[in-house]
Write a structure and sequence with these properties.
With about 300 residues, this protein is of the alpha/beta class. About 40% of the residues lie in helices and about 25% in strands. The strands form three sheets. The protein has a nine-stranded mixed sheet. Strands 2-3 form a two-stranded antiparallel sheet. A two-stranded antiparallel ribbon has the order 7-13. Helix 9 packs across helix 10. The longest helix is centred in the C-terminal third of the chain and has 17 residues, at about 290-305.
Length: about 300
């Protein structure tokens, strides 16, 4: 099975990051020196994906600009002999193609994926959410592609989370477990209460889906919050008899979808980066006394409230 296309939904309003996202798409907020969406594209390229379909919304044209070649900038860098930066900027444009599709209304993740139907032939397609950053020896989406090829079915990424956190995620009900990391899905439940969740295996932002997902989403009705959920579309595939697997991706996952998550992701990515790791470790080590003092102040304030 050859998966050469990925859909990256990037049409959200990014309200958690306001006021920063009033003029800057949250997908372009930097993690060190690259926006989160570029980490996702690079993961796809390492997995053999050549074509990226960016689902955008109003005021998101800068995402397309980011992945477009800027001759003026390239020329200025060449004149200053900054060849390294020239190579960095040209690298993705040489290895990946980008298509932008505008989501007409913010009707949910399922609707965003459905808008890309005309760009996908009768082929399996990757779906990569830019809020989730995966690191590890093997790229995350590449691991799913391998399982999808092996099992000849759709595969979704899952991660075990504490039961008190399951209400933030879509959660799978396991039909059969084949290994510590591989499961066949019986059902999917979107954001269940902790006491009603069928498992603690939460769906995280990587999928490899068969083309029937578009048929499943075609006539989906919007849920209680007025959105068409991708989880519901995949559930419909399962209920129709299609085999869907879930796989725990090996490696680390960082959630850059909230301000605190982005801060944590930036720190961890800096610690993994040879250029910044030593300086970052020294900086964090030097914070010990200040952190202890801050913790003491926090406990004092808590006692006063």
């Amino acid at each position: 099975m050859l998966v050469t296309k990925a859909i990256i939904p990037a049409a959200g309003l990014g309200t958690r990051f306001l006021p920063a996202t009033k003029s800057i798409p949250k997908e372009l907020l930097p993690i060190i020196d690259k926006p989160s969406i570029q980490y996702v594209v690079e993961e796809g390229v390492k997995s053999g994906i050549k074509n990226f379909i960016l689902i955008t919304g109003k005021n998101k044209d800068s995402i397309i600009d980011h992945f477009s070649t800027d001759p003026t900038l390239i020329s200025a860098l060449e004149n200053k002999n900054k060849d390294y930066l020239v190579n960095v900027l040209k690298k993705l444009s040489k290895t990946a193609n980008f298509l932008s599709i505008r989501q007409s209304e913010p009707l949910g993740l399922g609707h965003a994926i459905w808008t890309a139907r005309h760009a996908i032939d009768k082929e399996y397609v990757a779906v990569m959410l830019p809020d989730d950053i995966f690191t590890g020896f093997d790229p995350g989406i590449g691991q799913l592609i391998k399982i999808a090829t092996q099992e000849k079915c759709s595969v979704i990424a899952v991660q075990e989370v504490p039961r008190e956190e399951v209400s933030r995620y879509g959660v799978i009900d396991v039909k059969k477990q084949f290994s510590p990391n591989l499961f066949q899905v019986r059902d999917l439940v979107e954001k269940p209460p902790a006491d009603k969740a069928p498992s603690c295996l939460a769906i995280v932002g990587r999928y490899v889906l068969s083309p029937t997902v578009f048929d499943s989403l075609e006539n989906m009705s919007s849920g209680a919050i007025g959105e068409i959920q991708l989880t519901d579309g995949i559930q419909k595939m399962v209920l129709s008899g299609e085999k869907v697997f879930a796989y725990k991706i090996k490696g680390e996952r960082y959630d850059a979808g909230t301000p605190l998550g982005l801060l944590k992701t930036s720190v961890m990515m800096a610690l993994k980066n040879p250029k910044y790791s030593q300086a970052m470790l020294q900086f964090l080590s030097g914070l010990d006394r200040e952190l202890i003092a801050l913790q003491g102040k926090s406990e004092t304030l808590s006692g006063l409230i």
